[in-house]
Design goal:
By secondary structure, the chain is an alpha+beta fold. The chain has 4 helices and 12 strands. β10 and β11 form a beta hairpin. The longest helix is centred in the first third of the chain and has 12 residues. The mean pLDDT is about 85.
Amino acid sequence: MKYLIYFLVVILSSCGPEAEMFQRQYVIENNSSVPIELQFYRDGELNLGFATSQLQNGERLEGLILDRSGGAWSELTSEELVDRPSASFESDSVRVLFNNQKLMIYQISFVPLMFTPSDRNLLKDNDYSVLGGDKFLFEISESDFDNAADCSGDCN
């Protein structure tokens, strides 16, 4: 009988309310004048989850929705959020091919946490703007196309 009461107390005490979940999602939009191809890599291998995506002007690609309990995302510091786009797209590097004419590569190194190039990077949280609610937007612009490396039609 004593064990039955103990068992009931354990069961009832574990039936509390679940922690509130907070979501965050990263979105990439092509605002350049040419079609782009996004190739996502993890550990040097093409990522099977996001493998390759082609975006025409104005089209968007949404990353995975990230869930967090224990407080809103806004409670985290920028250092704690810095690599969240990398998690949303399950990638540590992304190749952006602009109409097979130009190439831009975005990377993140986790040890130590570093980004190249040091300016804009679609794998870095600070380079996203609030789209609304729990979504954040990185816009690939005409200046990204202008600053990409020329590969003379052979970007593969």
